[in-house]
Amino acid sequence: MTSFSLYPISELKNTKIFTVYILKSVEDKVGPLRDKKYLDLLIKKVNQGKSVVFIEDLNATFVLPDKRALEHYKAKEYFRTRGYEVYSCVASEKIEEIAVYGSDEEAVHDFAEGFVLSSYQFLKYKSEKQPEVHFHVYLDQLGAKKVKELKSLLDAVFLCRNWVNEPVLHLTAERFSDEITSVCDGLSHIKVEVMNKQKIESLKMGGLLAINKGAPNPPTFTIIEYKHPRAKNAKPVALVGKGVVFDTGGLSLKETAGSMDIMKCDMAGAAAVVSAVVALAKNDVPLHLMVFVPATENRPDGNAIVPSDVITMYNGTTVEILNTDAEGRVILGDALAYSEKFDPELIVDLATLTGAAIAAIGKEASVLVGNASPEVKSKLVTAAFDTYERVVEFPLWEEYEKEIVSDIADIKNIGGGNGAGSITAAAFLKYFTTKPWIHLDIAGPAFIKANDNYRSKNATGYGVRLLYDFLSKY
């Protein structure tokens, strides 16, 4: 098991600590580089294309500049990935205390982010006792407030990863809501309401109830309000997260290999929006936010809905269910419609929604669709590149909306078979909100099959840093 603590460099007392020097240029001449022999060595390594150099007699590592990372977001990602590289070496040598020096605040921040994110492990169900490792990281250039902010954010990413990695046996919809309540308890300016099945029935949330019909455990609908007394936004920003804690596909049963066996991750959108708001609250960011989490399992019990069923959603829209494995959009529809009660100025939903998104762009980004203003979408895209939780915008032309018109109901829950599945899924969601809205289909980057630098195998925590960056600058 690993954990971490971050400190400003001013708290460092141990002068013999393992040291990392972050260089934006060899002209930085920090620490040992004032000695010409070390400077000449570093210049030689730079010219050889090296990115990290360890000098044993100094007990130090130098992270070298990259002349190719000219674009701002690429430079940020460069230092994150060097954090991963140094973490791999430090972990193998069982070094638990490091100091990070540099002349550039942003480079130190990004290196530390990559280093800490690389340390994540999910070992909860390992029978063999694992040695506990706690990293103590001292950061130059960042004051106490920024160090605290970074730690709160990285804790939130770990929280998200833990939830997404948790098997449904231990994280039903009710348990998920309980954990959300527990995590938010004690945070300033936050209140949580959990609606049980009886309350959901009284509200006539036909989408969430329909998907839950085959499940052995009841659904929940969790609402979080974070309202800072100095909130910069007069109307709330609503965040909606898909909370399917396990998805078998229902009666439209998934194949097992490579599909159903990872479907504990189908609540990654919900985990991300909650974790982001927890980080924002811990760092006292002055915003007014609402979070909506519809949660359920999608199972093929004898009572489960069948293809051809027609249901009535919370807002009165009738939906023909043609594929029970297109369930995420159905529960999100109720949540989007319900969020309008609070008159949000913007709605952002995150969902592991479609295999079509993975087919289109793989694990490298999420699909963005929405009718929010170009200015708001541009800010989100900037945040996505800065955090390297990238997004690619797809169109939502009226031709796609025609694809989900039903012969016997208002709409159907899948398109007409002409492809563009991630877009027709978004076209379905558009029926349930009249507000400025952004949909992020995070199916590709939320859960991956192998380590990708500091993005851990399995749950990556995608969306937490993206939302935090976007909203903190909103």
Task: Describe it.
Strand 5 (97-102), helix 3 and strand 6 form a beta-alpha-beta unit. The two termini are 36 Å apart. The model has no long low-confidence stretch (mean pLDDT 95). The longest helix has 22 residues, at 144-165. This protein has 474 residues and is of the alpha/beta class. It is elongated. The strands form four sheets. Strands 7, 8, 9, 10, 11, 14, 15, 16 and 18 form a nine-stranded mixed sheet that branches. It has a six-stranded mixed sheet with strand order 1-6-5-2-4-3. It has helices at 36-47, 72-92, 105-118, 144-165, 173-184, 197-202, 206-212, 268-282, 328-339, 355-361, 374-387, 398-402, 421-430, 464-472; strands spanning 2-8, 18-22, 52-55, 60-63, 97-102, 133-139, 190-195, 220-227, 237-241, 243-247, 288-298, 310-312, 318-320, 346-351, 366-370, 391-393, 411-412, 437-441, 447-448, 458-459. The relative contact order is 0.12. The protein folds into two domains: 2-142, Leucine Aminopeptidase, subunit E, domain 1; 154-472, Aminopeptidase (3-Layer(aba) Sandwich). Helix 2 (72-92) crosses helix 3 (105-118).
Sheet of most strands: 9 strands, mixed
Give unreliable regions as ranges.
Answer: none
Count, helices: 14
Q: What is the count of distinct domains?
A: 2
Structural class: alpha/beta
